Amino acid sequence: MHPDLAKLLEAGRINQAVANRLDQLAPGKFCLHKAWGAGKVTDWDLPGKKVTIDFEQSSGQTMDLQFAIQRTEFLDAGDFRAKKVEQLEELRALSKSDPVELVCHLLASHGGTMTVDALEKELSGAVISADDFRKWWESAKRSLRDSKRVVVPSRRTDPLQLRSGDMSPAEALVSDFEQARDLKTMAKALEAITGDLNLFKADTAALQRLLAGINDTAAKNVRISLGPALELLSARDEMVRAFDDMELPAESLRLSDLLASEENRLADALNGLASGRQRAIYEEFPAAFGERWVDVLTFIFDKVGTRGVAEIAKLLEERGQMKKLSEHLVSALARRSLGTDALIWVCRERDTTASGIFSSEVGACILNLLETDHLSDGPRKTTRLQSMLSDDKELLGDIVGSMDVNEARNFGRRLMECPVFSELDRKSLMARVIKARPETGELVAGRGGKKEQELLVSWPSLEKKKAELDDIIRNRIPQNTKDISIAREYGDLRENFEYKSAKDHQKYLNNRKTELQRDISRARGTDFKAADISAVNIGTIVKLVNEAGKQTTYTVLGAWDSDPEKAELSYLSELGAAFLNKKIGETVEVRDENEVTHSYTIQSIAAVNP
Fold first, then answer.
1. What is the three-class DSSP state of 370?
2. Closest by CA position to 536, among listed 567, 557, 560, 515
3. Which of 111, 183, 288, 607 suits a disulfide with 259, CB 3.0-4.6 Å?
4. d(C-alpha 190, C-alpha 210), whole Å
5. Within a 10 A sphere around the Cβ of 68, how many other Cβ atoms?
6. How does pLDDT run across 72-97, given as a tens digit for each residue?
7. What does 153-184 look like in DSSP terms, one character per residue?
8. Whole-prediction pTM
């Protein structure tokens, strides 16, 4: 204790608690102020109740002693912040010679954890120049991960954490896995471990502990999180294969057994996993399904996302099993049932793997998907497909190249009437079609200056579109603007998932607003009153009978009134358009989902609203 305080304490003028607190503000001691940062006490005047402190941002600051007691907190001389006051040059040298030690010292002074933003605030400008900090931090992060002394998060908003000093590097990696709060974080920790497996060759106990933890975690989460559970087991098996003398314990959950038992849930579970991990899992299908493995892969092909589609195709091609997949895709194209991801793959690989699959049917399938998605409610699902059609300069030419004249003209007509594209995009796409098939040029020449095609819609569907547009303009766009502003405050925009997500949603909202405004401007509402029943028209109920005498009834309604469960057809749909202008007694040929053509004869036509 400072001699001046000892005298006051001995004389009974202050008590022990006050003496202890005052001793923390004695000359030569360090303290921390919220606004001025760390400081060193240089002098005091106990009778005058004054203290002088050299702060980082305010040197020679004289404060009332009582105020200093209330507004500062004691700092140990070994604290990083205290060293910034008196040993700044030493810290600057340490940042260059041993950045790991510098960061560990800083974390230890902040309770073992702090965010990257807080770390940058502490170091940038003082210890490391602001211009050099970003480059220094990228290098320091790599060194920190290699050292295993600090847990470095993948997201900037998550905190850095100082590990316990008595852990081996292998134990530190296992600790990361065990401390993960969710399965995705566990999977990331496991991926990091697979990159440092050599650390476990000298620490088999840590490896056995890790394998047991993976097995228990996967088994507990199979029902609610099948995808991450498969990811964990696949990474575990990769680790085991890296050690020649290691085998899984007999009681361990096997990846092939889990795949076989969860066959019906695999498509949803695998969608979203990294491509490399999906590939590793697909390679287990022969062990899981035996002779059926190709059938199972073919069944889930169009349901596992972009990454899965590519990896399944590569695997089947490498193993000489493309025939069954090709047959499946050709059939799906003919039925117009092929999904977006598979269709994009067929187009991208049309000159190589998918050369035997790519045909004129691709064009009709693309337009069907775009139109159906456009008329449905909810977020767009075919944005990438639409972008590919615009970005791939040769695609349309390849599609119409194999068509006869009538097919090319029909395709061009559908393309010009497709409500998905703006007028400018439509002209650009048609120019490519005409370049490949000059016979289709008459479609554009005959169109002249005619305005965009009018849409006939029911009043309820029109009001629904208007309500959606109003909600987007009044509520969703303003809220998205706020979300972007908030997310921007989270830090580095290059690593800011919340900001990227909000900006992506902004693009969707603006595109959707433009689409709705265009569609509403083209729409003419109707109640289908007194529709002309001399032939099938919009607003009519059509009864048909097939060759076997089975009767079927459809209702042909407005552009946005499709409801398959009620047998209600939009007049823009392929089936609805086939019925239009047909009269009683005429025959209509309809192709079902199995590519079988059925003939229907129109028995009667009635008005929906007489």
1. helix
2. 557
3. 288
4. 9
5. 24
6. 999 999 999 999 988 999 999 999 99
7. -SSTTSPEEEPPTT--HHHHHHHHHHH-SSHH
8. 0.54
